Amino acid sequence: MLIAASAQGLCRLSFCEGPEQLQALYPDAALQENGAWTAELALLIGAIVAGDIILNADEPLPFKMDLRGTPFQIAVWQLLLAIPAGETRSYGDLTRMLGTAGADRAVGRANGANPIAIIIPCHRVIRSDGALGGYAYGLEMKRALLQREGALQADLFG
């Protein structure tokens, strides 16, 4: 798990990435590994990822985020933050909520560009036919996250 924060807040949470990918995303940043000021944030994020803490969509996050993206991407990410644990939305649902009917692919691309995995719950977006769709870290992880949150029955998929 890679956790990156700027002075403005959490800016990246990803898996299977390292300093090279982070430097490519933030070429002007001076990377400092294991900064003491991020230790508390890392403990909190670790508890969220482990499922010990489930974030409530109705409550503010316990930390600030530094979201960098287009206005459309940020609008999609804000919608994702509003999806409660244990629920899913389709790409079509999100396009209707944005008032951009028919822009399912654009919503999918914005969803896939989510820089803060799990915290911005892009895993809660599924296809309109009920299929899981894709996930940057694999469908097994997506399935496990949704099962843990109660959005999928564990025995539906073996």
In short:
With 158 residues, the chain is of the alpha+beta class. Helix content is 37%, strand content 9%.
Structure characteristics:
single chain, alpha+beta, two-stranded antiparallel sheet, two-stranded parallel ribbon, 37% helix, 9% strand
Set down the secondary structure blueprint.
Elements: E1 2-6, E2 9-14, H1 19-25, H2 39-50, H3 71-81, E3 89-90, H4 91-98, H5 104-112, E4 125-126, H6 139-149
Parallel strand pairs: 3-4
Antiparallel strand pairs: 1-2
Describe this structure in words.
The structure is a single chain. The chain is an alpha+beta fold. It has 6 helices and 4 strands; from the N terminus they run ββαααβααβα. The protein has a two-stranded antiparallel ribbon. It has a two-stranded parallel ribbon with strand order 3-4. A hairpin with a 2-residue loop joins β1 (2-6) and β2. α3 packs across α5 and α4 (91-98) crosses α5 (104-112). The protein is globular.
